[in-house]
Amino acid sequence: MKKKVGIVGYGGMGQWHTCSIAGTTYYNAINFNESDVCEIGGVYDIDPEKNALAKEHGYKVFDSLEDLLHDNDIEIVVIATPNDVHESIAVAALNAGKNVISEKPVTMSCEALENMIAAAEKNGKVFSVHQNRRYDDYYVAMKKLSADGTIGDIISIESRVHGDHGVPGDWRKTVEKGGGMLYDWGVHMIDQQLWMLGYDVESVYARFDYLTGIPVDDGCFIDIKLKSGKNLHVEICTYNFIQLPLMYMRGTTGTAICNNWMDDIHITRCTAWGSHDDIRPTKTASGLSKTMAPRTDRAMESFSIPRPAVNVHDYYRNFCDAVDGKCEQLVTHDQMRVVMKVIMAAFESAKTNTVIKF
Fold first, then answer.
1. What is the CA radius of gyration of the chain?
2. Contacts of 213 (CB under 8 A, 6+ apart)
3. How large is the greatest C-alpha to C-alpha distance in the chain, in angstroms?
4. Which of 49, 141, 156, 294 could form a disulfide with 231 if both were Cys (CB 3.0 to 4.6 A apart)?
5. DSSP letters along 191-213, please?
């Protein structure tokens, strides 16, 4: 039997969740198949206009959050509200005996996260955060490359999302509600990179852009060093009119790159290291360089791999199986803890212009 889901918040992501579960069209752009594991049990938003819209879309609408939480048919509550109320809603839902999925960021402090985890453990309920970007097809391909040794041991990863519209929306431009690019996109990229290469964080250094005249970061640049020696770079910008590669990964025997959301994964791999005596200098603008001379074709190979088929609804399948005790939840409490600590360290680093040690 499908599990009934209550959606709290019917803005952009609230509608994304309802459409991805009900199998309807999202913003007339993305078509979903109806979920095989859950169904919409109802919606609540503090905005009467959003509730009216949910009702127009054919969903049951609750008069209050309390009414939603008191509905015995609701097994899972999805929180798709501004970030500042994630904690209070999650704790209330968990204490009401519901399993909870919070939109990212899971909350706005390590202390708040611990309160949410404690409520989940006290009530024996599953609690996690919606890290849907683990299902981005380019990322899935890169993660496989990092694991199978195609380009050797991974040295570093760069992930970036570039736009040129500034910070969209309303509450995402406010400090109090948890606006800004670190909370909006940075949390995704941090989660992706740590899930790929490990959670043994040694230090964090960050700086922010404030180019559009709003009080939250409209760009963030974060460098994460792991105890393993690997280096991670996350870059989210809203003031770039030419975009840099979406993901760039260096290994000991090759490099992999994905240029944009629609691009395949391109790989160049060293097949013969050779000696410096074999290198012929190349002309570089107004001089010669042996250091930066390209390799010969016999010393390297280049090829591309297509993006794999992925299904983001596997997140819900995993969560429902975890509720039934069939598996561990995909995004664990400890993973959420490390990501939140990195976010807090990034804020502190940007404020003090220092490297924050873990």
1. 23
2. none
3. 77
4. 156
5. HHHHHHH-S-EEEEEEEEE--SS
Cα 348 to Cα 355: distance, rounded to the nearest angstrom: 9
Residues 184 and 343: their CA atoms lie apart, in Å, by 11
pTM of the model: 0.95
Q: How far apart are CA 53 and CA 44, in angstroms?
A: 11
**Among candidate residues 66, 69, 110, the one with its CA nearest the CA of residue 87:** 110
Is a pLDDT exceeding 70 seen at residue 225? yes
Q: Which residues lie closer than 8 Å to 153 by C-beta, 6 or more apart?
A: 251, 252
> Is residue 211 left, alpha or beta, with left meaning phi > 0 and alpha meaning psi from -120 to 50?
alpha
| 327 three-class SS | coil
What's the whole-number mean pLDDT along residues 329-358? 98
Q: What is the mean pLDDT of residues 163-175?
A: 90
* Euclidean distance between CA atoms 94 and 147, whole angstroms: 36
What tokens does 119 get? 């409520």
Mean pLDDT over 14-24 rounds to 96
Instruction: Of 125, 123, 79, 126, give the one whose Cα is nearest residue 105.
Output: 79
**Helix and strand tally (H, E) in the chain?**
10, 18
Query: CA 258, CA 142: separation in Å to the nearest integer?
Result: 9
SS3 of residue 128 by DSSP: strand
Helix (H) or strand (E) holding 237: strand 231-237
Please write the tens of the pLDDT for every residue from 99-153. 999 999 999 999 999 999 999 999 999 999 999 999 999 999 999 999 999 999 9
* Percent helix, percent strand, percent coil in the chain, to nearest 5: 35, 25, 40
**How many Cβ atoms from other residues are within 10 Å of residue 198's Cβ?**
13
Asked if 238 and 164 touch (Cβ cutoff 8 Å), the reply is yes
Q: What is the dihedral of CA 255, 260, 262, 264, to 10 degrees?
A: -10
Which pair of structure tokens corresponds to residue 340? 């939140």
